[in-house]
Specification:
The chain is an alpha+beta fold. It contains 6 helices and 12 strands. Helix 2 packs across helix 4.
Length: 249
């Protein structure tokens, strides 16, 4: 895939900027970065905090086509690509916490947001993959202090955004091509090797927590409820109970 990068100083959010460009017909591989976002977004409407110039803030336009059901898989593809990139650019072994965080020593160094849009025929029109990597922060707001870290804090080095971006896009292009050729099944084994699954405690949509057991070939998380049921967690808001046949598959 060819990437075309537009670097902005300040924007409302790179996600919103790429959405505007996608609506206007921008091609796959359109990339927008920013030094600072006035209204950065995380999952489920949460804000994304950044200190100006201290993060890599990037959104990438993908146009995979097909069913909208595959869109959540691209968050996992993005997580794997960023894990590859951090190992390459910073010699940091990040772990992927399903579905969209990367952790170093248990603290979040990167968040990923995949936002999808369908066309008028119910097909997947595009996915905007937002990636925020903490590069050089030395401190965080009180609400994040115990949960966040940066590459600089982990390694004691300073990082320019451009080489890290180059690594992210190179690995994203490779992993996206593998996904398009073979679906998430082609990436599942290596994704699990880089992840906190099995064993990750996940919040179940109907209350309580349960341990993650596995991730299916479709990227759906399998978790064990307190009553022993095996649940397919499509997202934090959608859960399906696994039948006896599926559980044994």
């Amino acid at each position: 895939m060819n990437f075309t990068v537009t670097a902005l100083d300040v924007t409302d959010s790179t996600q919103s900027e790429v959405k505007r460009r996608a609506t206007a017909g921008a091609p796959e591989g359109t990339v927008v970065t920013a030094r600072h976002q006035r209204a950065g977004r995380g999952r489920r409407g949460h804000d994304w905090w950044d200190a100006p110039g201290q993060s890599l803030l990037v959104s990438v336009l993908l146009r995979p086509g097909g069913s909208p059901r595959v869109a959540p898989q691209l968050s996992l593809v993005g997580g794997l690509a960023v894990a590859d990139a951090l190992a390459d650019a910073a010699s940091v072994a990040a772990r992927i916490r399903w579905p969209n965080d990367l952790l170093v020593d248990g603290r979040k160094v990167c968040g990923i947001l995949a936002e999808a849009a369908s066309d008028g025929m119910g097909r997947l029109d595009h996915v905007i993959l937002g990636i925020g990597i903490n590069l050089n922060q030395t401190g965080f707001p009180p609400t994040l202090r115990e949960r966040a870290t940066s590459l600089g804090l982990v390694t004691g080095r300073a990082y320019a955004a451009e080489p890290v971006l180059a690594a992210v896009l190179a690995h994203l292009g490779r992993r996206y091509a593998e996904w398009r050729a073979g679906g998430f099944a082609a990436l599942r084994t290596v994704w699990l090797e880089r992840s906190t699954v099995p064993g990750q405690l996940v919040r179940l949509p109907h209350g309580g927590e349960g341990p993650a057991v596995d991730v299916g070939d479709d990227g759906v998380l399998l978790a064990r409820a307190n009553d022993g049921r095996l649940l397919r967690i499509v997202s934090r808001e959608a859960t399906e109970e696994v039948t006896a046949h599926a559980a044994g598959h």
